[in-house]
Amino acid sequence: MSPVRVRSRTDLRRQRRRTAHGCWDHLVVAPLWPLHGVNLGTLLRTCDAVGACLAVPRLPWVPEALERGNTLRRPACVHWTGNRVRWLAAQREAGSAVVGVELAEEAVRLGDLPAARRRTVVVLGHEQTGIPPEALGLLDQVVEIPMVGTGASLNVAVAGSLVLYRLAGLL
């Protein structure tokens, strides 16, 4: 068996985009009911990895959480929402697919979720209560991440990252 060759930073740079992605390109992750700031930083890093944008609500603590979580130390693609439900409705009316990550009977398993073929907004709910009922009716599709352990769900950052990678066609 041949030895494993770890790719250098130069190798990796050659394989990746030469410039940052365009704003509102193809994928947007929207943790609209965040509970923990650390999750926003993790999602910001995933957005960079898959070429997505992050849409967050205007809550007093969110800017600081994003600043702390931006380990890339360069500007990230972040957009601010006003009324969260109205913002989701506007995204849907503009032609975006709206996919919620939620435990629901009609949910598609993550492994069966196809890559996004058009602009897609991934909606993430509150860590404890999920996506509020008034927003569930705005979802075009629901995706569920199967689990075999005793927990009911993953945290928002992990769940959002898995779904983003899948929709980006990278998983």
UniProtKB/TrEMBL annotation:
InterPro entries referenced in this protein's UniProt entry, alphabetically: Alpha/beta_knot_MTases, rRNA_Methyltransferase, SpoU_MeTrfase, tRNA_m1G_MTases_N
Gene3D superfamilies: 3.40.1280.10
Domain of life of the organism encoding this protein: Bacteria
One GO term of the biological process aspect: RNA processing
Keywords associated with the record: Methyltransferase, Transferase
GO molecular function list: RNA binding; RNA methyltransferase activity
Span of domain tRNA/rRNA methyltransferase SpoU type: 38-165
Transmembrane segments: none
Designated name of the protein: RNA methyltransferase
PANTHER family per UniProt: RRNA METHYLTRANSFERASE 3 (PTHR43191), RRNA METHYLTRANSFERASE 3, MITOCHONDRIAL (PTHR43191:SF2)
Coiled coil: none
